[in-house]
Design brief:
By secondary structure, the chain is an alpha/beta fold. Helices cover 29% and strands 30% of the residues. The protein has one domain: Vaccinia Virus protein VP39 (Rossmann fold). It has seven helices and eleven strands.
Length: 235
Amino acid sequence: MGNSFFQFKQFIVHQSEASLKVCTESCIFGASIPIENAEHILDIGTGTGLLALMLAQKSPAQIEAIELDEASARDAQKNFSASPWKERLILHIEDAKNFSSAKKFDLIVSNPPFFIHQLKSSDVRTNAALHGSELKPEDLCAIVNQLSTDEGRFFVLLPEYEMRLLKAQLEASGWFSIYHLAIFQEMNKPVFRIIGGFSKKKEMQLNSKQLIIYAGGRLYTNDFVELLKNYYLYL
């Protein structure tokens, strides 16, 4: 059983009710997303509110978050309310496919369900959080198209295969790939996760790089420490 909370340097994430707990790749995602002077940010499938909180720490933007699972949303609301940025964090408890807003967002982020072809858990809430049955690539693409500004940017965390599927959907809709971070748990291991960034404006060069989490044993690499040092309590 995971811990009921995760303490960061500037905020705490309560997670006793959430279907998915704080994990290393989500923390990497939140720390690595470039803000680029974003004023209005949307977090699709916020879970505990982790990404929204990490972005609030490094940006003065107004941040809205969507979460379908009511129990996870209770944790997210508790975390938002206890944070130093509670006035800038808004939670919507609803299905992202039904979410509408007169406001458009210049930065949209998502850590969506992704295990499209893998065996499902016996836990219904875990299935919805981990598997693509609730939010398919075409659904996510449609949501981002609807809610993004004309110069909007979209960042997403997925395994390699699922990223290829979503990338194809986005590019067919007129988005351009601008950022690619390959995450490896250790050197000489397969790619663990991909962080992809997309824009409606074509940029001159794709920002492509990699991050290795562990240098050996359970020691973090210098790159990992540099990325997470403003967030992790003991770095």
